[in-house]
Design a protein that fits this description.
Layout lengths: L7 H11 L4 E5 L2 E4 H18 L7 E5 L4 H12 L3 E4 L6 H10 L4 E5 H6 L1 H4 L6 E4 L7 H10 L1 H10 L3 E2 L22 E6 L5 E6 L1 H8 L2 H5 L10 E4 L6 H13 L3 E4 L5 H11 L2 E6 L1 H8 L2 H4 L9 E4 L6 H13 L6 E7 L2 E7 L12 E2 L4 E5 L12 E6 L6 E2 L3 H7 E2 L2 E10 L5 E6 L4 E3 L2 E3 L1 H9 L4 E11 L3 E10 L4 H11 L8 E4 L13 H12 L2
Parallel strand pairs: 1-11, 3-4, 3-5, 4-8, 5-6, 6-7, 10-11, 10-12, 12-13, 13-14, 26-27
Antiparallel strand pairs: 1-2, 8-9, 9-19, 14-15, 15-16, 17-18, 18-21, 20-21, 21-22, 23-24, 25-26
Length: 541
């Protein structure tokens, strides 16, 4: 049965019933079968529904790295008709509390290590917190090592008597009742840049995820039965549309196992490839592939021959990285190539992509089936091939809208086409090319960082009269943020400490420069474009 009109839970259950004994999750030295994972999902759904009275339409916040609990909660919440609010696991306390309050969440599942870092603040958290650890699904031997290494943290968290523990939750034998969610009802909340560069909460239905997931055979250029017994390395985070859909949901509903790595390292990728010997795909941001190809143990790995396709997204892929990666594959007689694709959270994860069947050097790909593109000028008139304008998308994987913002949702669409806020062009053959961002957003290691949010935090400090945040190059993260600040108090650490409290780690300015004034537009607003141009000239970027 086609998955496009199923719920997220139903799509996974169908895969689990088709291949119950195959491995769904590879987690370090442990393997969890599709049927066992389904049992864990059903048990968690019962706990949420019967023990904590989570009902249809209720929102549950999930802020976890790539650990099995993330997947279990994602499907369990969907089974009972509730909504998953997926949040960056490295978000500071104030961000978590804001997302919890804004969506009127009923519970929060948080990573124990992150809570421990701000334990004093979390003692005053307004809401029910369940702590999840990376050690819960390890083998017995690994679990002992993990428990010993983190014994102090565990002891101090337990001593608070403030939090629930994931491993302590029991269903008491009660069975959960599946609750249907309509195609026009929200299943998932993700947080990303809007098409104007303003941070928004994006409402997505099951159809958005399942539409993209159903295109996996097309994207991978494989038959559905060829996925069984194979695996994909999942290092992209669950709060990111690309990670949640393409490296978690899409593989699983195609009976395709995922190797979950909570924190990326090329060493761990190589270790998992050597251990399981069935990896046919890696998805990541450009920096992941740069790190892999610079690791001699990956470059010389005998299992490169097993790889089928690798996909880069989240930011522009350097052609040097692609060429080096592809050269390594050719050298190992591997058919794998590194392909670039394009998508955004509002049109979930992948809308066009280069594949083995269709690819063009320098392009961001060819539209997947069921997706159409237009390039629009400033007056929303469609441009001919070769002309640069705003990339606009029409697809079944489009969002339901921005959370509690009907006006912004309407402004995003023109004749059913979603305006992306990105500039590019289409060639005569229908391939897309990205040229620049129209929206004001900085991609730091593939994560969207919003200059206006950084500016708001800094402006809240006493003595600050003005601030402008621009993008600068960075060796480790490709891009980073730099803040120009007009202030009587010229203490950069004061500014960075305030940003650490209220922003994700990627948004903390890498550089802070104090200036006497900032250029103004004729409307008396800070001319951030001028500041960006000046910084680019200084760096010869």
């Amino acid at each position: 049965m086609t998955i496009e009109y199923l719920t997220l839970y139903q799509a996974y259950r169908q895969a689990a019933l088709n291949t119950p004994d195959e491995t769904a999750i590879y987690y370090y030295n442990n393997k969890i079968s599709f049927s066992k994972l389904l049992d864990q999902i059903d048990e968690m759904a019962s706990i949420l529904q019967n023990m904590y009275r989570i009902e249809k339409g209720d929102v549950v916040l999930v802020s976890l790295p790539n650990i099995p609990q993330t997947i279990i909660l994602f499907y369990a919440i969907n089974k009972i008709g509730a909504i998953s609010n997926m949040v960056h696991p490295n978000s500071p306390f104030e961000v978590i509390q804001k997302y919890y309050d804004d969506a009127n969440c009923k519970m929060a599942f948080l990573f124990d290590m992150r809570v421990y870092k701000e334990l004093k603040s979390y003692m005053d958290f307004r809401g029910t917190v369940v702590l999840c650890g990376a050690g819960s699904f390890l083998t017995l031997r690994d679990k002992r090592h993990y428990a010993f290494a983190n014994r102090r943290m565990s002891r101090e968290l337990k001593a608070t008597h403030r939090f629930l523990g994931y491993r302590k939750l029991k269903s008491n034998g009660l069975i959960s009742k599946e609750v249907e969610i309509g195609q026009d009802e929200t299943s998932v909340l993700l947080h990303s840049a809007s098409t104007t560069g303003i941070s928004k909460t994006i409402c997505l239905g099951a159809k958005s995820f399942n539409f993209t997931a159903s295109r996996i055979p097309e994207i991978m250029c494989m038959y559905p039965e060829d996925f069984i017994g194979k695996s994909l390395i999942s290092v992209l985070p669950s709060f990111h549309g690309f990670g949640l859909c393409m490296t978690m949901h899409a593989p699983l509903v195609n009976s395709f196992g995922i190797i979950m790595i909570p924190k990326f390292s090329s060493k761990m990728v190589v270790k998992m490839m050597n251990k399981y010997k069935n990896v046919i795909c890696i998805c990541g941001v450009p920096n992941i592939f740069k790190a892999l190809i610079n690791d001699q143990k990956f470059y010389n790995n005998r299992h490169l021959k097993t790889l089928r396709s690798c996909f880069s997204g989240g930011d522009t892929l350097s052609m040097i990285v692609k060429e080096n990666f592809d050269t390594a594959m050719i050298r190992k007689n591997s058919k794998c190539r590194l392909f670039e694709g394009y998508g955004l959270t509002e049109a979930l994860s992948v809308c066009c992509v280069n594949t083995h069947r269709r690819h063009k050097y320098g392009s961001i790909g060819y539209p997947i089936s069921g997706v159409s593109f237009k390039i629009l000028d400033e007056n929303n008139v469609e441009l001919e091939p070769g002309k640069i304008g705003e990339i606009s998308i029409k697809s079944e994987n489009s969002m339901l809208g921005y959370f509690n913002d009907e006006e912004a949702t309407k402004a995003t669409y023109v004749d059913g086409y979603l305006k992306t806020g990105d500039l590019g062009y289409m060639d005569e053959d229908g391939f897309l090319y990205f040229t620049a961002r129209k929206k004001r957003v900085i991609k730091v290691n593939g994560v969207a960082v919003f200059p206006h949010e950084i500016e708001s935090v800094i402006l809240g400090l006493s003595g600050v009269q003005g601030v402008c945040v621009v993008q600068i190059p960075d060796e480790k993260t490709v891009n980073a943020a730099k803040a120009f600040v007009v202030s009587n108090n010229k203490d950069p650490e004061r500014i960075k400490n305030e940003c650490r409290k209220k922003l994700i780690s990627w948004a903390i300015p890498r550089e802070i420069e104090f200036v006497k004034s900032l250029p103004q537009t004729r409307y008396h607003k800070t001319d951030y474009r001028k500041m960006q141009e000046l910084e680019n000239e200084r760096r010869k970027a």
